[in-house]
What we know:
The chain is of the alpha/beta class. The protein contains three helices and 16 strands. The two termini are 34 Å apart.
Amino acid sequence: MTFSTKLIGGKLVKRYRRFLVDVQLDNGTIVTAHCPNSGSMVGCCEPGRPVLLSQSNDPHRRNAYTFEMINMNGTWVGVNVFVPRKVVAETLRAQHIPSLVGFDDLTIDAEYGLGNTVDILMLGVEYNLFMNIYHVAWVENRVAQFPETPNARARKGMQNLLEIAEQGHRAVAFFFVQRGDCDRFAPAVDVDPEFGNIFKKAQQKGVEIMAYRADVSPKGIELGVPLSCVAD
């Protein structure tokens, strides 16, 4: 995914109300930007850090700027939670993940069953593939971890994948790490023990766990290399 326009640099002043940040641009102007991330943003929201914003020309938007990434100790960290699904979908359509080829149609935010949805559904001849994508931006000691806080939505999504796998379809939990300073991925069982339990059960039932770090730069964000998964 390449940004359509050049990102605008500045320094983070503060984050507040979850969806807003104040940023001092490189020219000294202070602006308010939309923060497309409602999570705690552990380890990637320190005031004073260099940040990059995108700018919209839509006159109807309340905030023209969007918080896209922050530089943590020399590493650009993507904070936009809508990016992973877009990048993964682009990669799948280009058939750049060898284990996930051979499917005809790809639908984003697909409905199935009675009121259930998955981030990506791909239809195949012998079976279908159901995928949920999890945005990861928290890294400790080069280990990417998820979730940052107890996350009921993530638990439900993983439970749904478990049930899909039991029905004989391929189910994939895809952890998209929007930074490059990590070598491994692990579920944050100390933060959300219930998620850790469901994660382990899902693996046992055949849910495929995939974790990839991203190549994040001011020009764009692309899928990088896979990470080994460490789970208790």
